[in-house]
Amino acid sequence: MTLPMENDPDFWTQIMTLREPAYSEPTEDDVLALQDDIFEAVQRMASAISLRDQDYRAAGVRPAPAAVVASPDYQLATLHALRQAEGVIETFAATSAKNAGHTGASYTKLGAAWGITRQSARLKWPDAARKPGARPVELDIAGGRATVTQLSDDDGYVWEATAENGVTEHGQEPYGSIAEAAAHAGAFLQRHAYDPSATHGDCTEPHRDSKGEYVDCDGQPV
Fold first, then answer.
1. Residues whose CB is less than 8 angstroms from the CB of residue 121 and which lie 6 or more positions away in sequence, other chains included
2. Interval 43-101: pLDDT, tens
3. CA 32 to CA 37: how far, in whole Å?
């Protein structure tokens, strides 16, 4: 296989083209090495935040007696350090999912990489996999704003919105057309406007005209 080099005219085209398969499964040694790295990082933080360990350091006792790690409070410090590690991993995962999705990876592939289903991946990272080059459509309705995005692999359209009263939401499943997604987003924004007594304030579902096409509350196409 010829590897793309930076002086090749189509270097970026090749680099940004999704490979299949994208990765190989880690070996047992790979997993063990990762476990060791995570263990060491967590132990460093646990030692740094443990009040018992801090007391020994303040007294000039370095390192602290080995038995200190068996204390319940030190184990709580370790548990809290693990929680911080989990948060960092989730942040990194969301970034990687968004970077992969915005450059062509589908929710099927994102889910496979994380060990979950396509539907679960969509719920976990609702704005990750959008069609490359597709421009989001923004809607301003009832004092709120919604964004409709086309998913990669022509997998439909999703929406996310922030209503006038500050409530946020996103579609749980993709819709077959941009109009259908926009209609559901619009119904959400109407439902969460500040003034429920306002015109159309009681709308909870999208409207359709006599031909079955989605329309707004005033009957105009969306």
1. 97, 107, 108, 110, 111, 114, 128, 129
2. 999 999 999 999 999 999 988 999 999 999 999 999 999 999 999 999 999 999 988 88
3. 9
